[in-house]
Design a protein that fits this description.
This protein has 415 residues and is of the alpha+beta class. It contains eleven helices and 18 strands. It has three domains: 57 residues, no CATH class; 162 residues, no CATH class; 80 residues, Roll (SH3 type barrels). The protein is 25% helix and 20% strand. Strands 5-6-7-8-9 form a five-stranded mixed β-sheet, with helices on one face. Strand 1 and strand 2 form a beta hairpin. It starts with 5 loop residues before the first strand and ends with a helix. 12% of the residues are buried.
Length: 415
Amino acid sequence: MGKKQTITQAKVRMQKRFLVDTLKNLHKKYLAENPRKSVSYSLFCRLRPFWVVHPTLSDRETCLCKLHENLGFVAQKLFSMKLLNTPEPETLMAEICCDQTNKECMYNDCGNCKEKEFTLLREYEGSTQVAYMQWVTEDTKGQTKDNIETTFKKTVKKKNVFPAVTVVHFLSDGPCTQYRQKGNFYLFTSLLHKKGFQAGTWNFFEASHGKGAPDGVGGVMKRSADRLVSHGRDIHNAMDLFEALVHTGTTLKLFYVSEESIDRAMKDMPDSIPQVPSTMRMHQVVTTSPGHMLYRDVSCMCTVDKILQCTCYNTKAFSFNIQSTPMTEEIKWGPEVIQKWCVIKYYGDIYPGIITTIDEVQVQVRCMHRVGVNRFFWPTREDMIWYVFDDVICFIPPPQPVTTRHHEIQKDIWA
């Protein structure tokens, strides 16, 4: 939502939130979901927060879905012509679908209901012309001001604040030039694991359905920048804007993304990235190993419970065939490696430890235990196990203490 889309009442200023249905329908849904609560329609309307408002024409470009609204206009017209018994698209959908929670039914792939048609209440003349409302998009010419290109994210450094986080969930809209494209999929399936996370999901909102908290954050930042400029603050570039907003005392976490960091990321990407099939249809991407992803047309909430390998909604797999590079040169094994710090691989996870003994094909390592992303500690009971040479990834400097008990591998090595 834009920076000007706020509403003030009793000196309380709030970001606008737009209704996506009529109050009468929302009241019916509320009673159906809360059968033990008896709230009259008038009381329900009176308790509506003042910042929850009906969308106007000027709000249409930033909220709601034109496709769904236009379908509603058609239903209303047919109802007014006494051809249908209801103007509600939800009720009409229930008449022609076996199960509204079934993907095949809603995607018109079900053999039982894909040929069903609405039952008309009377005969009609097909040549009769009627008029009904529709939202349309028009191409217009206009002048635009130069915009400062930068990136702001309401986020936290999970690896430092929440070291036990192992799975990351992204939720965003799905522009094909930014998020829903092969370059972003490649980075998602590679960088996420390099940062130490075990898995991640990326969920794309349907078109025109993603207006919410992220747009509200953007509106807050725009209003803050306008206020600074009106008070005489000069802002010439992205860095000036970033520093000015940081010093406003905002509780939002801001990050400045330099052009150099973007260039470095681009250089790390291969020259040719394979195209991911059905890119425009997918709404969820899941990665559990570097270079590999699962994708489906509909997001599955099994991922919330960390069941990341489910096959719901005809899940498909894709691999970028990333060739992993060795972290170090080939290790030369001999008595000199005893008492050296190393990183070993155990059931897919990595742990630091000290080599205590070596024989012809394996080493004995006293290992630390893991409590999160790059967080390790010495267990009360000594963990001493033999590992074959191939399980030793590399030698490292001693981990650095971050608390009285926890240690971390140097960040440049961990990354």
